[in-house]
UniProtKB/TrEMBL annotation:
Keyword terms, alphabetized: Ion transport, Transport
Family classification: Belongs to the V-ATPase D subunit family.
Short name of one Pfam family: ATP-synt_D
GO MF assignments: proton-transporting ATPase activity, rotational mechanism
Listed NCBIfam families: V_ATPase_subD (TIGR00309)
Listed name of the protein: V-type proton ATPase subunit D like
InterPro entries: V_ATPase_D (IPR002699)
């Protein structure tokens, strides 16, 4: 129904045929470009998925090691180390910033961690537990770095998923709706133009036939007028009627024809 409704709104002219062909070429190129974009995004999507799987697998081991390091620190330095650690830490040394990465026209958010400031090598007041607290801190720093990487991968994964769905919808629309509709319209215009060409040819043949009959009629009238003039001249020369002159001329013409044959 959609193709039929579009056909009814199109004027079948040569100009419109050229415009429809240009639109079909543009739709074909757009379909090819969107298909390449979808393939590129799908490749990137699969790579990110593999990274997410491997990161989540290693995340369990790292979080397990971090929790065990915290338990060791509490065992060595005592249970009440939270307040002492907070007193020795003034500003955050590990921070996160975001940037964007362009993949086939899609901007993917990326998170990066960076260190700012210096970290003390020992913690005053923790005695022999300071070394174990530093080891616990290093373990949790690794956990934070892995969490930042996982958050970046997860965000890129969701963004790519939406971009792939949108691109595939456009590809399917061009392939299943736009291109067939344009092709049907071009076929309709070509059929109408062929029909108009046949009508023009038939009209020219009819005009040529009419002109030919008109010329024959004028030649017959001229011949009849010439014969009448000759008959009048013969009638005046021999003193006979016009009908007798006509009969005499007919007999002479018939005799000439018999001689020829």
């Amino acid at each position: 129904m959609s193709g039929q409704s579009q056909r009814l709104t199109v004027v079948p002219t040569v100009t419109m045929l050229g415009a429809m062909k240009a639109r079909l070429i543009g739709a074909t190129r757009g379909h090819a470009l969107l298909k390449k974009k979808s393939d590129a995004l799908t490749v990137q999507f699969r790579q990110i998925l593999k990274k997410i799987v491997s990161t989540k697998e290693s995340m369990g081991e790292i979080m397990k090691a971090s929790s065990f390091a915290l338990t060791e620190a509490k065992y060595v330095a005592g249970e009440n180390i939270k307040h002492v650690v907070l007193e020795n830490v003034k500003n955050a040394t590990l921070k996160v910033r975001s940037r964007q990465e362009n993949v086939a026209g899609v901007k993917l958010p990326k998170f990066e961690y960076f260190s700012e400031g210096e970290t003390k090598a020992d913690l005053t007041g923790l005695a022999r537990g300071g070394q174990q607290v530093q080891a616990c801190r290093a373990a949790y720093v690794k956990s934070i770095e892995l969490l930042v990487e996982l958050a970046s991968l997860q965000t890129s994964f969701v963004t790519l998923d939406e971009a792939i769905k949108t691109t595939n919808r456009r590809v399917n629309a061009l392939e299943s709706v736009v291109k067939p509709r344009l092709e049907n319209t071009i076929s309709y215009i070509k059929g109408e133009l062929d029909e108009l060409e046949r009508e023009d040819f038939f009209r020219l043949k009819k005009i040529q036939g009419f002109k030919k009959r008109e010329v024959e009629r004028q030649l017959a009238a001229a011949k009849q007028f010439a014969e009448l003039q000759v008959a009048e001249k013969v009638s005046l020369q021999k003193g006979v009627s016009i009908n007798s002159a006509h009969n005499l001329l007919s007999a002479t013409t018939q005799k000439d024809d018999d001689i020829i044959f």
